[in-house]
Amino acid sequence: MLVIVVTAVILMLLYIAMRKKNNTAHFFGNKSLDDPSLSSQADEKTSVNRQKTTMLGSKPNASENSDEFINVTAEGGGNTVTFTISLNEKEFIKRYNDGSIGKKTRSGEKAIDDIVGFYGTKVFSFNNEYCVISRDGYHTEDNWKNGEIALVKAQTLLFKKKLQRPHDCHVSNTGIVVCCDWLKTDGLHGKFLVFDSHGELLFSRKTSANIGNSGISEDGNIAIFETFNSETKDSDKIFIVDIVAKNIVNSFDRPCSFNDVHISAGSQRIDLIDNKGFHYEIDFEGKQTNTVEYETQILQKGAVYDKLQLYLSKSDEKKFKDTNYLAVLQSSLKDRDASSSFGDDKLYRMIGEYYYANNDIPLAMENWEKALEINPRVGIKKKLDNLKIRKS
Fold first, then answer.
1. Where does CATH 1.25.40 sit in the chain?
2. I want to staple 272 with a disulfide (CB 3.0 to 4.6 A). Which of 114, 214, 222, 258 is the partner?
3. For the packed helices 304-312 and 291-301, what is the interaxial angle rounded to 10 degrees?
């Protein structure tokens, strides 16, 4: 089934572009379906029965008396499909005027954007009672416009304020809001902010490094934020904030970047979730608490690059005793991401080092020769020359 989701913005564009009803649109990417070059790409053995399908719950041949304001039909024959979009202007204007376009479907409810007065990124609390919405600052032709942040609960605006560049805002089940302000600056700086449900500032910490992501516990007692991209002592850290005490209780080297985080104040555990969905759990001292589980995730679900990074974090003694390490190295030569990231010269060198550690000198020499052919400065020539002298 083909499902087409039409937003209010697209509908407004359609209204302007389709004043003549029953316009017919032919499209396939940026080509017309009548383009003969597309026919040659189709499988000649595929036979498409001519059919007509109505989508979006609309009625075929709907008239302006219908309560449907957009009707989309698809008609296929041979290697082409023609989409026909019909707009009921009368119904569209009616819905636009009564505010039903772009609003929530539940009767009487206003959209959060309308409540706060701006469009932005929305994040809900764990219990879905609160919603924090933020919008970045921006340059106009004449000056700079600060960004905005607002908190909403049950269709009620609790607070709204301007910040320079608010990002990665979160809200707890108790209405405590955390926000990373990137600041309007050419330097490497940022500011982490905590507000109560009325918008009163509870905590603020300016950093001499860029601020990345943040998170807050469900009860609103503990928050964290990360920093990066600086040569200062603030960079590449994770900071833990005790919101009740209004101070930083610890900071330590960031073990990994994260896109999402779950914080358990009671057990003092922080679950860092990266962009690939891997869970890296640490305690409030920064020590990993799920080493075995984390490695299992990567070895079972990770890409070749992820697996190689995992092995390279181990000691030589451990990885050289693991035959899976050799398999990952060999797979890396065929994997585009791993090969481009590490370079085939270094991969062949590491394969040679594995064989050398396991006393397979001929294969060690063979792979080091390959590494030197690719890059004479790969850093293994002296060792290889010594092996050749010993062999002779």
1. 304-391
2. 258
3. 150
